[in-house]
Amino acid sequence: MTDTPRLPEGYEISTDPDRIDVGRVHRWLSTDAYWALGRTREKQDRAIADSLNFGVYEAMTGEQVAYARVVTDRATFAWLCDVYVDPPVRGKALGTALVAAVREHLRPYGLRRILLATHDAHGVYEKLGFTALDRPDQWMILALDG
After folding, report:
1. Disulfide: which of 7, 65, 81, 111 matches 97 by Cβ 3.0-4.6 Å?
2. 26-38 pLDDT tens trace
């Protein structure tokens, strides 16, 4: 397995849902994340409420600087989504450390797979053991409005 990157000094990760700055997360995703542009606040609030959430925070101020969300049954499957790092702190390996923390948090569940989709961050995820689907022809999608 790949190494587990550590957060740079001065940052911390939490899964405490009460620490999530839901307004900030909604603003990030709905205005700057290609996969969630225009997502409503109500829809984002529901997604947060029904998911396992990870936040990266500046240790001194408590300000949230990154976010990731996992949809999972905690038994067989997880979908990693909405991974976002605030632009002013990009380049500090926060995203890599965040995804590594998600991976390690999920490891004890004995999941069969963790799935994600990305348009432009393959290199980040490959460093952490993610690979392209061996048999994409076996996967299907039912695309719904909404």
Report:
1. 7
2. 999 999 999 999 9
